[in-house]
């Protein structure tokens, strides 16, 4: 079995390692020489996305494709590369996964959103993700391919958690009354995508998230307690010390349902409670 990953970063790399452990052959995009070397050292086949022949060769007889690269003003950067390469390779993967964001739903004033909820992105970045979703679904319909979209909230895990900022003394406990966010442990994001790979449905979209939306201030304070540190100073989200990028993050207030992925894929997040997720991250980092 063969997987091609376009955007082998934190999540793409974790998914690749999961399938590699199951005997899959993995090819992944890399532009920089050091990234090429790192992928090769990990047993993955590095592919320069700027080389159409190399991409097409890597896609021959491919079984699955995962795209995690963020869209820009021109759309998803993988589309103009992968679509002609798939045609050139005469490849028909049984599953194409596109990683999107729960930000496509926009603000719901703390209410619940489901996969069928209207998309109402409040930021440019989220609007680009929504457009990329539509583009990929159109490609799936036009080429007869099974495209599945995964809408994820903030991802945390070993090497990407509030512990890093707390240890560095740069963490902020930003508070907005009534504000909640969903999250997902990287291992649960991987297992959710793997469940879809085992049960592919054309045109599917899934929210992959935990079961307990909570405020960012509560999340940060709990993480500090696990480290034996006092909670960082509290700051109101409208404070002048809060950057504009962070303030935009607090414009969305919603609770994200993962019921569809549970019902259709049989998926359950191992770390449905972010407290247990943070404990697991700390245990992994200090082992």
Task: Give your account of this protein's structure.
- This protein has 287 residues and is α/β, with parallel strands linked by helices.
- Helices cover 41% and strands 17% of the residues.
- It is built from 11 helices and 13 strands.
- The chain has a 7-stranded parallel sheet, with helices on both faces. A two-stranded parallel ribbon has the order 6-13.
- Helix 1 (10-21) crosses helix 7 (186-198).
- The longest helix is centred in the middle third of the chain and has 20 residues, at 124-143.
- The model has no long low-confidence stretch (mean pLDDT 94).
CATH class of the domain at 2-155 and 183-211 and 256-270: Alpha Beta
Shape: globular
DSSP strand content: 15-25%
CATH topology of the domain at 2-155 and 183-211 and 256-270: Rossmann fold
C-alpha-based Rg, rounded: 19 Å
Structural class: alpha/beta
Which features does this protein show?
287 residues; alpha/beta; Rossmann fold; seven-stranded parallel beta sheet; two-stranded parallel sheet; 13 strands; 41% helix; 17% strand; globular
Layout of SSEs?
Elements (H helix, E strand, L loop, with lengths): L1 E5 L3 H12 L3 E5 L3 H9 L3 E3 L4 H8 L4 E4 L11 H11 L5 E7 L10 E2 L10 H20 L3 E6 L1 E3 L5 H7 L4 E3 L7 E3 H13 L5 E4 L8 H11 L7 E3 L7 H6 L5 E2 L2 H7 L8 H13 L1
Parallel strand pairs: 1-2, 1-4, 2-3, 4-5, 5-7, 6-13, 7-11, 8-10, 9-12
Helix pairs in contact: 1-7, 3-4, 8-11
